[in-house]
């Protein structure tokens, strides 16, 4: 789904052979990604009896990890799929930055002994996904503490050039009507492709439920969603509770 420079494909002249009679059509899959900043989504599946121990250890020693790179948010999963699970987002300037961070962590004995080694025994499985913020979205910090919903949409192959605009309209319609607050929209780069994550914020699980029920009766939302789901293969969501040490509360 790599994005090509769309400015090269505005005419019917083939950019690879400009002097020939060959005609090319656009095969860009979306806007070019100019900003190197990306966000790593990490999910840890914990042994059921070890959840509290893990969170206490992370709370006590998270400063050893955040000394190396920026933590965006850290949550425990309340609803949606497997429980005894934590989800966290880390920000990097580019891939070289992440490589340097990993090298530094490998040399950090204090982090290894107090943070890494004790926690590894408590984890069943780890997952990592690299994502970019979509070009039309900035990361927004909510006004106060609340709960978060991570909605994950598996779109049809083809990239944002196929489904980007309808998806954008569906998201903005929810936001513009005030049914929920948008934190960020992320497009997967490494992991399952054609996947988009939308991170929402609400004051509580009940306020989220009320907003969702109201949106289902709003013809503006219904129309926008109906257009977007033409490109949808599946979706799932998780209700996330921010930890006491999470920057996003």
UniProtKB/TrEMBL annotation:
Domain annotation NIPSNAP: ranges: 39-138, 148-247
SUPFAM superfamilies: Dimeric alpha+beta barrel (SSF54909)
Gene3D superfamilies the UniProt entry points to: 3.30.70.100
Biological processes annotated in GO: mitophagy
InterPro entries: Dimeric_a/b-barrel, NIPSNAP, NipSnap_domain
GO cellular component: a single term: mitochondrion
Family the entry assigns: Belongs to the NipSnap family.
Protein name per Swiss-Prot or TrEMBL: NIPSNAP domain-containing protein
């Amino acid at each position: 789904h790599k994005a090509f420079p769309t400015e090269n494909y505005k005419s019917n002249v083939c950019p690879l052979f400009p002097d020939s009679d060959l005609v090319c059509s656009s095969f860009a899959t979306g806007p070019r990604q100019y900003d190197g900043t990306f966000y790593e989504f990490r999910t840890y599946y914990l042994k059921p009896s070890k959840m509290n121990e893990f969170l206490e250890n992370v709370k006590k020693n998270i400063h050893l990890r955040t000394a190396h790179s920026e933590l965006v948010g850290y949550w425990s999963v309340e609803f949606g799929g497997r429980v005894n699970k934590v989800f966290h987002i880390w920000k990097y300037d580019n891939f070289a930055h992440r490589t340097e961070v990993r090298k530094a962590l490998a040399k950090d004995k204090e982090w290894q002994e107090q943070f890494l080694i004790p926690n590894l025994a408590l984890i069943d499985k780890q997952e990592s996904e690299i994502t970019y913020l979509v070009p039309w979205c900035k990361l927004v910090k909510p006004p106060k503490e609340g709960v978060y919903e991570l909605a994950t949409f598996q779109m049809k192959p083809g990239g944002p050039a196929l489904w980007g605009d309808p998806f954008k309209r569906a998201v903005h319609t929810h936001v513009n009507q005030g049914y929920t607050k948008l934190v960020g929209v992320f497009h997967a780069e490494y992991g399952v492709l054609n996947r988009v994550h939308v991170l929402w914020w609400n004051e509580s699980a009940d306020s989220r439920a009320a907003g969702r029920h109201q949106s289902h009766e709003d013809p503006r939302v219904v129309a926008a969603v109906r257009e977007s789901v033409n490109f949808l293969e599946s979706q799932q969501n998780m209700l996330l509770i921010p930890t006491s040490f999470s920057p996003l509360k």
